[in-house]
Amino acid sequence: MGIRSLGRSQELPDRTGSKIYNMNDSTIAAVATPIGTGGIGIIKLSGKNALSIASQIFRRSNSSIPNPKDKNSADIFSFKTHRLYHGYIVDPENKRVVDEVLLAVMLAPRSYTREDVVEIQAHSGQIVLRYILELVLKCGAVMASPGEFTKRAYINGRIGLTQAEAVIDIINARTNKSLEIANTLIKGELQLCIEKISDYLFNFLVEINAAIDFPEDVEEIVNVDRIPDFFQNDILKTIQELIDQYDNGHILRDGIKLVIIGKPNVGKSSLMNCLIKKDRSIVTDVPGTTRDLIEESFSLSGMPVIIADTAGIHDTKDPVEVIGINKTKDYIDCSDLILFIIDGSSILTHEDYEIFEMINKMNSILVINKLDLFLGKHKVNMPDCWKKMPRVEISALSNKGLDALKGLIVRISLGKNSFDSQNAIVPSLRHKLLLDKCLIALCSVVDGFDRGSSLELIAIDLKVAIDLLCEITGILAGNDVIDQIFNKFCIGK
Ligand SMILES: Nc1nc2c(ncn2[C@@H]2O[C@H](COP(=O)(O)OP(=O)(O)O)[C@@H](O)[C@H]2O)c(=O)[nH]1
Ligand SMILES: [Mg+2]
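Above: inputs. Below: predicted complex with guanosine-5'-diphosphate.
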């Protein structure tokens, strides 16, 4: 048996993730429901002292009148897990009843965070919820940071990182289709798929390392002379498919940003109102009515859309209009699709031409408005270069042509692909960028075998690929990445 040549083979990645976070000893608390008046508001506690903290302020109702002096009535430790108990929140300092509540204990590990959890369902009102939150903080809980409950679920191994990210997607889902995509991720299908690939690659790296370290012994056991078919066919193909799924499906989850632009009085605000089906923008025949940017969201064939009506672009010295026009120009740069609208019932002016120059080569649709005024009459005389733009004739006044415009927006945004949002695994942008890099590293592995590179070099690329996959699943995601992900959450989730 050969002597292990230390330092030559690639150090195997630590795939336990155990080093990343130390478990937190604190018990966290937050109001888990939105601020505002409503039916119920929930205060959530998680951590090893959740029960003892809650027991200091909760009095169980043995009768209809609470008896704050009755110490035994707060024996939360005897409560059955996952059951609701009726009682009262009592301020331990002045013994006053704060609210009538329902309380549930969810004992570890059968809870969202895998820690002991207490949920207090109070009446929803800012004052009462804040009062109860302050009481639990006084009794030893600490205020939860955004996403900390879900972060604990992840750290305690209940969910993978991609599933934790799906929780944000579920909260933010704006259409049924975006919800379907988030639900596939929360089931852990991406997590599982990436884990399977990285397990395979990990074992392959072990074999390569063995071949590097014990060249004489390993030949009979493993064959590392050529790339395995499974690697070439299945692994590379699956990663490529995941990347493609991002391109096909992310629009349905993330939505698109539309912007309506044009010179004054062409019907931008009228079109905005037609699309969102409400009178949001002021429509008048006075040029320069819309001076600021107006954003709204709506759903188009399951695709979440954010649309902006903008100030008409033209030469003006009015300082307010100038600010509005500059805002429009900035907004154009960060939008996915431009609706460039012109008045089809009148001749084009230098303002239309200037706008065309500004958006030429950008993703745009030419919307020729006021069809009711020019139907059957002369058509607007436009230069040939304009005709390359996809275009549609509409009347924002009578809603004519609106379905054609909507169809065009969907076709341009989603492409021709029919997409099964219920079953497709759609990685997020973070996953997709890591998968892109992983594919490059794996292609280098294939290339290395083709060119007969040394196993040491091949192992380096392979380890890079595994590390990138582990960054997706969270095993190797640094604290900054984890913090960035959870900072997108709201407090109380
Ligand atoms: N006849 C006709 N008038 C329209 C149409 N769309 C808008 N208008 C009118 O054009 C004027 C300017 O519309 P508005 O939406 O405020 O244009 P904006 O300045 O581009 O936002 C208003 O008097 C609208 O009623 C249309 O399709 N047909
Ligand atoms: Mg307007």
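DSSP finds 16 helices and 13 strands in the chain.
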